[in-house]
Amino acid sequence: MSAQARKSPLRASQGTTRTTALRAIPSDPDQSEVRAAFLSDYATHLRASNNKHGRPYQEKTVTAYTKAVRTLDSWMTEQGMEEDYLSVDTVTLNLFFRAYHQAHEQGGTNTVQRNLRTFFTWLEEEHEHPSPYRDKKLQRYTAPTGVKPKTLSSEFVVDMLKVTGNGHPRVREFEKVRDHAIVRVLNEGVRAGVADPHPGLSRP
Length: 204
Prior knowledge:
This protein is an all-alpha fold. It is built from 6 helices and no strands.
């Protein structure tokens, strides 16, 4: 086991003043268990925190962020890297993103790179691990250009919603309820994990 792994904050004794003690970590864990413990603590942090807009993270966002960490974990395992996440530096991330790009191209790499940023910000705040995202040598993968279709203006969408009754429960005309539902679906899409985001819209 590396010296850095032995110094990991996750292996601190019970007498430490750190309040984020791990609950299920064995007394002498291997590194895969340590990385899993990091991920568990990170997911707990996300579910107890607000995003930059002051709103709680949605569960689908937590899933996306933790999936990015698991993807990094799988790659580290494939490379035979036994260290925990505190060993990940700019060079390591550059190698990971380049390998990921070969299978997922520009758009997928941009997404996983954005989703990992929050994880390394958390490592920096909780475990004083310098974030590679602050390093100018970290290779950036921008989102693909020219792939977003043109959309209607927000003002036009608002006008259409008003014409169809704005989803008011007293609006019972079938055509208005139907048209309002169509506009909402086309404008917002269908959210995964939400059984009935707009109850009553489908019932005239």
